[in-house]
UniProtKB/TrEMBL annotation:
Organism: Glycomyces rhizosphaerae
InterPro entries, sorted: CBD2, CBM2/CBM3_carb-bd_dom_sf, CBM2_carb-bd_dom_sf, Glyco_hydro_b
Domain of life: Bacteria
Protein name (database record): Cellulose binding domain-containing protein
Matching Pfam families: CBM_2
Sequence ranges assigned to domain CBM2 in this UniProt record: 78-177
Length: 177
């Protein structure tokens, strides 16, 4: 097996060659990658057919790649162009058994026209009430979406988009949207 790395259009390309007659599973540490980047996996076989065999957002630098027998597998790592804004949850008040938080979105170079925020709480946090957004919580997974009037944020601006009360330990967060 051999591996080579090249730059291509701001992304990274990694070619993995399996010259064995059996499939191989490789654990890779993709240094320099960030959560939110997209990993697309292409594979050719002995007939030289090329196909996409996987595409998923990276959640960290570790990934596992399965190499077919006698194949070339190409990994393409690209930044998520859709992440044109940053968001954060700020703790406004904390009274021990619960807390008050607010979420702010900061637009990047492009305006935000409609937003959906998704994050995972780090612990036992549970939203009790949330205003100015449609929301769902399943376990630690949260999703909040605009309600129309608060969907647009001009390029370079920031806006407090919703507030909420929650139980569990207060938890400020930062993430892309």
């Amino acid at each position: 097996m051999e591996a080579t790395c090249n730059n291509a259009d701001g992304g990274r390309v990694i070619n993995l060659i399996n010259n064995r007659d059996t499939a191989v599973s490789m654990d890779l540490a993709l240094t320099g990658t960030q959560a939110g980047e997209t990993l697309t996996t292409y594979q050719t076989d002995e007939t030289h057919a090329l196909e996409i065999v996987g595409q998923s957002p990276l959640t960290g630098p570790q990934t596992t790649v399965d190499l077919a027998p006698r194949s070339v597998t190409t990994l393409v790592i690209e930044a998520d162009d859709a992440a044109s804004c940053q968001a954060h949850v700020e703790v406004v008040a904390d009274w021990g058994s619960g807390w008050l938080g607010k979420a702010t979105i900061e637009a990047g170079d492009e305006p935000v026209v409609g937003w959906d925020l998704t994050w995972n709480w780090p612990g036992t946090q549970r939203v009790q009430r949330l205003w100015n957004a449609e929301w769902t919580q399943t376990g630690n997974a949260m999703t909040a979406s605009d309600v129309g009037w608060n969907a647009r944020i001009a390029a370079g601006d920031s806006r407090d988009v919703f507030g909420f009360t929650a139980t569990g330990p207060a938890a400020p967060l930062e993430f892309t949207c």
